[in-house]
Amino acid sequence: MKKPILIVLLSVLVLLLPIGVVAGMAFGLPAQYSNTFLGEMAVKFDRLTSVEEPKVVVVGGSSVAFGLDSAALEEAVGRPVVNYGLYATLGTKYMIDTSKAGIGEGDIVILAPETDPQTLSLYFNAEAVWQSLDQDMSMLRYVPYDNWGRLGGGLWNFAKAKYGYWKEENAPNPEGIYTFSSFNEYGDIIYPREFNIMVGDFDPSQILTLDDSLLDTEFIDYVNDYAAWCERKGATLYYSFSPMNAAALAEGTTEESILAYYAALADALDCGMCSDIRDYIMDAEYFYDTNFHLNDTGVQVRTHRLGEDILRILGDKNPTTLFVPDAPKRPADFFSVAAEDDTTGYFLYEDAGETQTLVGITDTGKQQEELTLPVSFDGKPVTTMAENALDGCSKLKTVIIPKDTALTLIYDGAFAGAPKLTRIEMDANCAGITVADNLMKGTPADCRIYVSRAYYGNFAGDYFWSEYMSFISLAD
Question: Is 200 left (phi over 0), alpha (psi -120 to 50) or beta?
Fold first, then answer.
């Protein structure tokens, strides 16, 4: 009888050993994401849980991180302010759940997620959440059990990547705005953002549609449960809005349709609406690199408007004294590049005014097995790669994005339509190149993005590119 029991015990140990190894790598190794954008989560959590007096907690995604001057807001409303917004890919649910660690008696909680289907849902990105937990695993206790299955599913990829960075002594250390160093002690982004850097002043891959399609029933119920939880804690939840780029509103949007959406949302929510949605639909000149991220001047405008909203909650109807500046203008030569025009005859373009958009490939180009994307055409930089730009490239195996690329936006599905494409070689750094959630849509299953070792950590920590790490390999 003893031998079968021993065999069972050994079998259990064999099964548990890999789990123990993975857990050891995830929890036992030093933090590797400290310098990334997500590395800021632990600092935000610490501030949230350390400010005890009645405070204002603003919960949301990156539009909160990019959209507040917390010190000025504190002065205006006479209460400490906690900027508890970081990154939409974490999910609004994660920010709501972890915010419960620091909300207490007398607090005013402002929920202001981006007006987008993903953020207005119960979306949860396990791998991104693990990276945000890396600095302080104690936050794990505030992730509810209904997300533990997804966390378990993402643990292996997180642990494997963490071990690789530790072994190579090459932890992600991105450059530019999407880094840990871009935040101040309040959790506000303070990286200089002088003016709108988007081609055409808005991101056309992120059109804002304000209608009933955004009213996700499960999400609404979750917010209502959150409102009830806040009330039990002696706090009060209010709903506000992220800044929204007026230039990105869907065609046909009118004031009547905006107010209809506002009324439907207000009717569905149990908490109060502290803001007029129209105050947060702002001119394009106030934005920076997405339709939700404000530049420095835009931050002052949004802070002023939210300050007035909070003062009304507190019963003070006098206007705030924050200075509201005029919208900044982008320099006329901002998009210019020093590069020779494309003369290959391989590419089709659409003139976008200051810039060019790569929209397709000529018949001659479709015969190539390798294409290097152009930097300039007709004296203008090629800043955008459109959806299905490679459609019909039946022989194409390799696409090279050169080191001096002028690209700032690659549409979802830009690399679709090339059935033999297996290599996208990024000779450039990813900083400044915006991609959305379906970059690899329509590419073959074995298609990979190859980057140099010098830039690999930048991709791993980048706001836009980090979610594609399962597709990214070292070129050398």
Answer: left
Report whether 238 contacts 269 (CB < 8 A): no
Tokens read off for 43: 């600092």
Query: Mean pLDDT across the stretch 242-251?
Result: 97
Separation between Cα atoms, residue 48 and residue 52, nearest integer Å? 9
Query: Could you report the per-residue pLDDT of 144-201, keeping only the tens digit for each?
Result: 999 999 999 999 999 999 999 999 888 898 888 999 999 999 999 999 999 999 999 9
Distances (CA, A) of 353 to 253, 286, 346: 25, 20, 21
Distances (CA, A) of 253 to 214, 237, 258, 263: 14, 29, 7, 15
Mode of pairing for the β-strands spanning 398-401 and 423-426: parallel
Q: How far are the Cα atoms of 269, 428, 457, 473 from residue 165, in angstroms, in the given order?
A: 44, 21, 9, 13
- What is the residue range of 403's domain? 347-474
Provide the CATH number for the domain around residue 64. 3.40.50
Is the pLDDT assigned to residue 46 strictly greater than 60? yes
**How many Cα neighbours within 13 Å face the side chain of 296?**
10
The span from the CA of 424 to the CA of 254, in Å, is 41
Segment holding 472, helix H or strand E: strand 472-474
Residues 291 and 353 in one domain: no
Query: Which of 289, 313, 337 is the last residue before a domain boundary?
Result: 313
Q: Are residues 274 and 127 in the same domain?
A: yes
On whether both 296 and 399 belong to a single domain, the answer is no
User: What is the reported pTM?
Assistant: 0.90
pLDDT digits (tens, 9 = 90+) for 377-424: 999 999 999 999 999 999 999 999 999 999 999 999 999 999 999 999
Beta bridge partners of 372: 400
The amino acid that residue 207 corresponds to is: I
Residue 439 has a CB neighbour count (10 Å cut-off) of 20
| Residues 307 and 408 both lie in one domain | no
Judgement on whether residues 44 and 96 belong to the same structural domain of the protein:
yes
